[in-house]
Amino acid sequence: MDYDRSSTVEKETAPPNLKELKNVAVSYHYTSSIPLAVWLRTSSRILKHAEAYLSQGVTDQAYILYTRFIDLFAYHLYKHPDLTDLKRQKDSDLYKHYLSMKAQLPKLMSDVEKLNDVLKKRHDDYIKSVKAKGKLIQREREERLKEEATEFKRSMLLNKSNKDIEDKNAPESDLNDALLAKKLKSLSRIRLNNGQNRSLIQRTTYPILPLPHNNIDHSVPQLNNNIRQTSKENKIAPKQITHRAVNFTEKGIPLRTLFVPSNLVDKFLKIASRNTKRKLETCGLLCGKLNRNAFFVTTLVIPEQESTQNTCNTKNEEKLFEVIDNLDLFMLGWIHTHPTQSCFLSSVDLHSQNSYQIMLNEAIAIVCSPDKKFHKHIGVFRLTDPPGVDTISHCAKTGFHPHNEKNLYKECQRLGINNSKTGHVVMMENLSFETKDLRK
């Protein structure tokens, strides 16, 4: 197999530079209308996610999330209106939680500076590598052209010498045939050389540096060790299969692929069947792992909950998050039934989904409508971004209420292997998962 050096350069992906990463880190939807307790919980998840990214050598995503955490506490949360009342309750667990997280800022800022150096060196090394390869390709091309020019000149001189000899010795009839043959041979050689030159130019055209996409497209680890490990992991990363993000939000943020076990919905509907018969909603949490730049739902958690025909609210959330943290899982979304309604996101559902999506862009809502009178039984949704996330984040209303804005959410399940752009959620067969029912 021929080794085409230029194609190798063109296929390399430029790592994002620090300016792009910082822009992504601070491009999130903050609003003080969301309770401080929710933001503190979100901040805890951000640190967990950053640790997971760093442990897998996804340094740029770790940098984004650590920077986002710092930005939240340095520029927003200290001004949150809930904090005024919270300071009067200095013995409350929530206030202690706020102080403990804020106390981590100095160390995090120091560690982010170290990540800053790692990422800057990686980007600089890439630029140097591309320039070096470009110069090598140019040099090889020039040497090849010189060799061909020399060979062409030599062959023309040889042809002229042979022609002079034949002109002197050949009869007139033979001379005409010989001249014709020589001209045809010369034309053939020139045409071949021109063809080779075109091929050479095509192969050695300078590669265009690809614009790096925004890698967006969310307990603090010991970063020093992880940074050293990351440098080693980066050297072997190209040998590993990595899931490439092919889906994006409406503003161009990449969405990593989210794999959901194909039999999870059926399992959930069996769990919910008792409530469904009584026309009560049931909800569950979709939790999982990050693996090679894709998310996999590995655990269906059924929290303690209070249900009505149109709502489902979790109870004892401290226990719920303790379970998730102990299992070291990402919160990848939620699933719930509409026992008396069709398959859609209500205004209450939109606010619930927003609380997941501000933590993780890829988070989803699966809605199940078991009643056979409805044509659509299963829907996989995410808020649009924009306008959905921004609109819901700035909506202070509670309960069921109308939203005048259109296109606040959309379906995001991928419609077949050949339609990857239709959604970032893939229902995958033979993907195992476990169920944890906290109601028992």
From TrEMBL:
SUPFAM superfamilies reported for this sequence: JAB1/MPN domain, USP8 N-terminal domain-like
BP GO terms, sorted: protein K63-linked deubiquitination; proteolysis
Signal sequence annotation: none
Keywords, comma-separated and alphabetical: Hydrolase, Metal-binding, Metalloprotease, Protease, Protease inhibitor, Thiol protease inhibitor, Ubl conjugation pathway, Zinc
Protein name (Swiss-Prot/TrEMBL): Regulator of free ubiquitin chains 1
The UniProt record lists the keyword Metal-binding: yes
CDD domains found in the cross-reference section: MPN_AMSH_like (cd08066)
Membrane keyword on record: no
Gene3D superfamilies the UniProt entry points to: Cytidine Deaminase, domain 2, Phosphotransferase system, lactose/cellobiose-type IIA subunit
MPN domain sequence ranges: 258-389
InterPro entries, alphabetized: JAMM/MPN+_dom (IPR000555), MPN (IPR037518), STAMBP/STALP-like_MPN (IPR044098), USP8_dimer (IPR015063)
Function: Inhibitor of the DOA4 deubiquitinase involved in the regulation of protein degradation by the proteasome and maintenance of a normal level of free ubiquitin.
